[in-house]
Design a protein that fits this description.
Distance between the termini: 30 Å
Strand content: 5-15%
Mean pLDDT: 92
CATH topology: Oxidized Rhodanese, domain 1
Low-confidence stretches: 1-5
Number of domains: 1
Strand order of the largest sheet: 1-5-4-2-3
Largest sheet: 5 strands, parallel
Order of helices and strands: HEHEHEHEHEH
Shape: globular
Helix content: 25-40%
CATH class: Alpha Beta
CATH architecture: 3-Layer(aba) Sandwich
Radius of gyration: 13 Å
Number of helices: 6
Number of strands: 5
Length: 118
């Protein structure tokens, strides 16, 4: 399997995550950006685990529920999703990251939130 095929398998569209969150699906949505990025703006109802802390906090995640990671543009969340897939999780990366989420007109929290530079 090529890197491109692997990336496509791991990625989900922002619309799919929005639908999961709106329907109260049993999904764990996790922001893997740094703290200052999260404070600037994030998706309401999501968890925050910085990528550098993911391996030490992976045990706190439910293996029976899907996990969707997001970051600014998708690179860090891809790494997180691939690492958790290797550990047996059903893990995904939100394609295009929070930048795409915001560009497509979806809300950020807190009100007036924005996508911080990394």
């Amino acid at each position: 399997m090529s890197a491109r095929e692997t990336a496509a398998e791991v990625e989900i569209e922002p619309q799919r995550l929005a639908e999961w969150l709106a329907s109260d699906a049993d999904v764990q949505a996790i922001d893997v950006r740094e703290g200052y990025e999260r404070e600037a703006g994030h998706i309401a109802g999501t968890l925050h685990i910085e990528l550098v802390r993911l391996s030490e906090q992976a045990g706190s995640l439910d293996r029976e529920r899907p996990v969707v990671f997001y970051c600014r543009v998708g690179a860090r969340s891809q790494m997180a999703a691939q690492a958790l897939r290797a550990a047996g999780f059903e893990a995904y990366s939100m394609a295009g990251g929070l930048a795409r989420w915001a560009r497509e007109g979806r809300p950020l929290s807190p009100e007036g939130g924005y996508v911080a530079d990394h």
